[in-house]
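Possible race condition, two jobs.
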Amino acid sequence: MKIPSYRYSVLRCQRLQRHISATTRPLAQPGDDPKFKSIVDSPAVLVRAGKKKHGPGLIILALIPITAFALGTWQVQRLAWKSDLIAKFEDRLIRPALPLPPKIDPDAIHEFDYRRVFARGHLRHDQEMLIGPRIQDGKNGYLVVTPLEREGDGTTVLVNRGWIDKKFKKPASRDTLQACPPDEVVIEGLLREPWKKNMFTPKNAPEKGEFYFPDVAQMANLTGSQPVWIEETMTPDLLTNWAREEKGIPIGRSAEVNLSNKHAQYIFTW
């Protein structure tokens, strides 16, 4: 018996539907597996690939700015200290000169550094000492240190009279009356703590008459003086200095503070 076409189409659709239902299964989900663990259950652990230790070069590079900052800060502090020190010395320079007391405590001299003083007495030229060589205006020479024996109390102090050219090393080669005055003199100068030797300065050899730096205690013992150091001062004048140099008369220093202060430059450097 022949099946009508419309019923045939219906039957085919029914068969196709049953086939699809029989062959189609719902897809399995990861959560259906009892052994499955999500990222919530086990958070991810960060693992650095190719981990490498920092070498010494990187450490040194990191230390450069830190070191520069530390040195710059230190120079700022040094600048403030040096500026205050110079201001203190300049204040002492503008005060009238004081008569030098008969007895002076060596431990208290630093409190009067750069203080203007004057003393009267006779220069002991027979105990003269030369410190050098010392360069001045490109010429080689020496600083003349002579004990000053004061009248009345009989005490003696050391006087740095100034610079002479090396050709006048021997007293006999100088203008005797002016370079080595025999009469009573008045010395005006600065009470000072003299400079210290550095690592390149040779040791003094007093037995040979060789002095490379002012060891006040040593010089005082040699001459029977108090360990007091006075730097004779004079008004700077080019013609006067030239005339004194030609006669072997010591050229005294000017009454001014001569401390180096380059800390501001070092601050900008660092």
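Job #2 (started ~2 s after job #1):
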Amino acid sequence: MRILVQKYGGTSVMGLERMRLVLARVQKAHVEGYKLVVALSAMSGVTNRLLAQAREFSANPDPAELDVLVTTGEQASVALFSMLAKDAGLRARSLLGFQIPITTNSNFSRARIMDIDTVRVKAMLEDHDVLVVAGFQGVDCHGRLTTLGRGGSDTTGVALAAALEAEVCEIYTDVNGVYTTDPNLCSNARKLDRISYDEMLELSSQGAKVLQIRSVELAKKFNVPVRVRSTFTDDPGTLVTLEDTEMEDVLVSGIAYDKDQCRITVRNVMDRPGVAASIFAPIAEAGILVDMIIQNTGRDGRTDMTFTISRANLDKTLAILEHLRPVIGCEDIQHDIHVCKVSVIGVGMRSHSGVASTMFTLLKKENINILMIATSEIKITCLIEEKYVELAVRTLHDAFGLSEGPAKACP
């Protein structure tokens, strides 16, 4: 049995005409001999409307009940598309997360997939041409509905492809693939034909919105080829796959940026063992992700601790730090929401030097001050003032020649 998994995002299923475009792709794959598992998102805007409605009824909605509510968006999508597919002569059936089941932990609103019952899915594929699965959702061991977090339908698609050993997972969206940077910010951004899992992970973690980061983690772990393409064109898109020698010759693959950043500085904390743990352990326990961290050189038994978080977590983080004041003995807690991360990413950086110095020199020439720096094997990230983000991205994109072709490493 040849199995193909396709995932369609909210803009792809927004109304009858767009669902007909999805149907045409499904029919084409069916004619080519595939059994299809199609994961659908809620129609664009539906999840946000449901969340807004929940907050009209409750100032602090219960996370478990919120998951019950927001899963109805995907439920509507799969039911409507299944009707359309059946009318077109396909043997189709809609499936919700709990009907498969897609079993998750009980971390409501950001649950993680623990297991997928592939025996049942494969049995149903014997009698159907296409199974239309609600993305973004699952069920915990207590029978309660869960959701996988924003962009969770990507994770649903990749997880199904991994579990079913599908040939590929096709992620359909409203863009033609993965670009060297955001085309809305840089008009000469170039679509990539291929990109490695590691590069895609870095792009996703540094602000690129094409794929949810957990879906890329799953794809890498289980070696699932992922093709990102547009529902609305015949462009072949971008293949996310294993790194090869040709990819290693490319010095820089893309420039990413993330405006959802806030810098917090805890000033004059006690410079002694355990203080960093006292600060970051409670933040982690609250489910808040900390990104960049710097600790200044201590002086007179005191030091400053600076780190970044997403803006949505600012109030919660400040409340935690205020509670910790007596423990860490800080003088002041400062924050700045007018900051942005800009990252240069490429697997070629593993074995070639000079990218960091080039990046820093380019920013200096534009009088852009670097507030913080973080690096990995294939990424260099600078925190800068938000007002300079467009200038920084365009400058770096042009300097590394990304609009003309891959930035090749020097021999």
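The chain has a mean pLDDT of 92.
Logs attached separately.
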